[in-house]
Every structure is written in structure tokens, then in C-alpha cells.
Amino acid sequence: MKTLRLALMAGAIAVTPAAVFAQDVGTTIYGSDGKPVGTVVEVNAQVVVIDTGRHKAPVPLSMVFDGPNGKSVNAPRSLVDSMMDERLAAANAERDAKLKPGAAVISSGGRAVGTIRVADLTADSIILDSPQGPLRLKKEHFAVTPQGQLMVLYSRDQIASAANGSTRNASATGAGN
């Protein structure tokens, strides 16, 4: 009985941080300067997402504490935005480096969907050759997985449907040639 009670208490303690924040969506998070950093828009077991007005910044729950003004993080909004700018710039640079003709592309579900035929980064025009036909996309439609694979931010079914619907349009505009 004592073991069961300890197990239940440990489980309650393990879920407490997320449970405490779950009711606080919409709460203002303050920075080390005492000024608002942003508003809580999402919480899960590991991260609280703070909307700074410029970014939706994921912050580990362990980094949020009770400060003099309320829930706080040890950084001002300018630093949070700067760190997010750097992360996004690095992610975009890595993505752009992978967007090359012949590059294999996987879907958001991790399945092969085709290869890059044309990658005109200046014009923001990427043509993905899928088994169903070519599809014109933009840089923002791609990301790089933690394993370093080029991924289109759509499912394989969405790619197939779009390619089937756009094959006629792509042929008419020269993308199918």
C-alpha cells in the first residue's frame, strides 16, 4: 500500500509542471528586465511556447520560474527574439544548402516523395519531381530533419494530390518539360 501511494505521488509530481501551465495559456511571461516577454500559447510536458509578437518561442518548462511580476524567464524579450532569429536563420541556411537539383525529398511523414528538379532560390521557385508529376513549391515549403534529410512540409498524399491537380498547369507553364 505504501509503495502504491509513493508511486501515485511520484506520478503526480511528474505531471505537475505541465498541469500547472495548462491552465495558464494566455498568461504573460516576464523577462529578466521585469517587462513582458510574451504570452503563453501552448504547453506540453516539456515546453511552454511563448508568443513574443515576432516569434513563437519554445522554452523548456524548467527555465520558467515564479518571478516578482509572475511567471518569468531569465532573458528579456529582445534576447528571446534574437535567439529565435539566429535559430531560424541557421535552419533556413541549412535548408537552402540542401535545395539542389537531384536532392531526394521525403514527406512530413518520412516517406520518399521525389527529387528536386529545379531549385531557383533567388526566384523562390522549387520544382519537385514526384511520381505523379512535377510540383512547383517555395523554399518555405521545405525543412531539414534532425537526421539531415530534406523534407517537404506536406504528406505524401498531399503531394500526390497537388501534383495530379497541377500536372496540367505545370505542362502548360513549361514546368513539365
How is this structure best described in words?
The protein has about 180 residues and is α+β, with helices and mostly antiparallel strands. The chain folds into two domains: about 1-80, SH3 type barrels (Roll); about 95-175, Alpha-Beta Complex (Photosynthetic Reaction Center, Chain H, domain 2). The chain is built from three helices and twelve strands. The protein is elongated and about 60 Å long. The N and C termini lie far apart (about 75 Å).
Instruction: Please give the number of β-strands.
Output: 12
Oligomer: single chain
What is the structural class?
alpha+beta
Report how far the terminal alpha carbons are from each other.
73 Å
- How many helical stretches? 3
Give a short summary of the structure.
With 177 residues, this protein is of the alpha+beta class. The protein has helices spanning 2-22, 77-98, 156-173, and strands at residues 28-30, 36-43, 47-51, 56-60, 65-67, 70-72, 104-106, 112-120, 125-130, 133-137, 142-144, 150-152.
Task: Please write out the topology.
Layout: H1 2-22, E1 28-30, E2 36-43, E3 47-51, E4 56-60, E5 65-67, E6 70-72, H2 77-98, E7 104-106, E8 112-120, E9 125-130, E10 133-137, E11 142-144, E12 150-152, H3 156-173
Antiparallel strand pairs: 1-2, 2-3, 3-4, 5-6, 7-8, 8-9, 9-10, 11-12
